[in-house]
Amino acid sequence: MLSFLIANISTILGRATQMYERVLETLITQDMSGKFLSACNMVPEEVSLGATCSYGQLLSHSGKFNEAEDYLTRALKKAEEKFGANHPVLTCVDRMYKLKAKSEGEIERKRKKKRGRERD
Prior knowledge:
By secondary structure, the chain is mainly alpha-helical. The protein has a single domain (2-119), classed as Alpha Horseshoe (Serine Threonine Protein Phosphatase 5, Tetratricopeptide repeat). Helices cover 79% and strands 0% of the residues. Helix 4 (65-83) packs antiparallel against helix 5. It comes from Oryza brachyantha. This is Kinesin light chain. InterPro entries: TPR-like_helical_dom_sf. It holds the Pfam family TPR_10.
């Protein structure tokens, strides 16, 4: 199973991206006075919050930190409006910044290594 996931990661990420984009687009364009897009027992606002946060996480894990920050910030604002200061979105934002810092550190290490080879 793991080898299948590794071999098909770009396809899986692409499909996940499409799914989240469709959900978020539907929530934006849907007439909230009629039928609602729902998942299990979640109302549209909760579906929107969950999709926004999850899409931000997906972008973060894909290395698209600027976009991830935008979506996670939106999710954070929605969560604070709905639940106050205590909610799990903060953990998602924290994780994104850790991944970003790690990525930037790896890029800097590669630059230093390349500069060291150029001096030789």
